[in-house]
Design brief:
By secondary structure, the chain is of the alpha/beta class. It has two domains: 121 residues, Aspartate Aminotransferase, domain 1 (Alpha-Beta Complex), CATH 3.90.1150; 276 residues, Aspartate Aminotransferase, domain 2 (3-Layer(aba) Sandwich), CATH 3.40.640. It has 13 helices and 16 strands. The strands form three sheets. A seven-stranded mixed sheet has the order 4-10-9-8-7-5-6, with helices on both faces. Bound molecules: pyridoxal-5'-phosphate (PLP). Pyridoxal-5'-phosphate binds next to α4.
Amino acid sequence: MAAAHSLLYKNFQKHPGALVESATGIYLHTSDGRKILDATSGAAVACLGYDNKRVQQAVVDQLLSVPYCHPGFYKTQSAEDLADFLVQSTHGRMSKAVLCGSGSEAVEVALKLAKTHFSHLATPEPQRSHFIARVGAWHGATLGVLSLGDFKVRKEPFVSLLAQNASRVSACNTYRGLRPGEDDEAYVRRLAQELDDEFQRVGPHRVCAFVAETIGGSASGCAMPVRGYFRAVKAVCEKYGALLILDEVMCGMGRTGTLHAWEHDDVGVVPDMVVVGKGLGAGYAPISAVLLHARLVGSFQASGKGFAHGQTYMAHPQAAAAGLAVQHVIRDEKLLEQVRVMGGHLERGLKAALLSYPYVGDIRGRGLFWAVEFVKDKQSKVPFPPSLELHAKMHARGMAKGYEIALFNAGGGYDGYAGDHLLVCPPFIVTE
Ligand code: PLP
């Protein structure tokens, strides 16, 4: 049948990419005979590569037993088991999980849970309806979370539709944010003060939550928190009774070498809620989750009131079966250890190969989550103007040993900055 091109693409015309006919290990095979090494796991998703037999079998088994049932009327074993797994993975810190389909949905759910928490308190605080996010954030494409985010090209066309109850403070990004002569401690104090000032500006008891990616992802290119940063901003949240929501849709579920990115020493806080997605189901099915701290769950339960939220595909049994199998493979095959070891090779390799180039400003990341930031001038750190050219050039020139290497050009411009990053985040099964 002649291709009718009925699927709507971003450019409304022709899809710029090739047709993928099969996928094995960490490679995609296209109909024009190319073999592509997926060095970004899709968009930091396919952490087990593309043909993990155990995960495939788990999805098939679930499909043949209970493919779907109404999540409000019935429960399924795979969803119950995945929620248990996720809660247990936090060693008693989180006590409930909501299962959704995508990162955007899950962050929306976290915002609604935060709002509900304050409405259900013994002394309700209905005036809390403002969210503070960060410059350079990306929390998803649906309208609620788009108002938090800061990915200019994706946000600008829809600004008139967005909620006005969100504002942003600087993110922690030493390459861009540290002032000459300032050390990490002083930087952290300054960022915490900026957040405190923003609480004061908005009205300290109007803020529901501060929302941050533990490690900045697609819009800011692996912006790493310095030691003490999250402790300091959490203290500000606590001072004003607001919640801390960490978005680990991109950096979570093993990508940085611990299952949750907030478990690293230098993060050093337990959030009130954490959102995961992408690597949770590794692309074998769309699945995401919000994990809630025990103290929130306590207030919900004590109120005797429910959560006014429902979606057709919540706790989807096939997606849950995929997520559970992925997590069992990571545990049984000790892939977190593999991420740490391979992450060391990747860091050394990237720095040795690229750091001396005049257009490479910074190389940063953790585990198998790395970004290369390009600048027009290394001294002034002036970025190139935003463009998608880099992506196209990488596709044209990224040939090595007979295969192409697919990389992910993040960035594209957010308020106050417009530069290019390259994300390098290969599957956990990558070899040296
Ligand atoms: N949050 C973060 C940190 C993300 O990186 C993304 C996607 O890139 C999202 C949320 C949205 O997830 P999704 O695209 O699955 O809706």
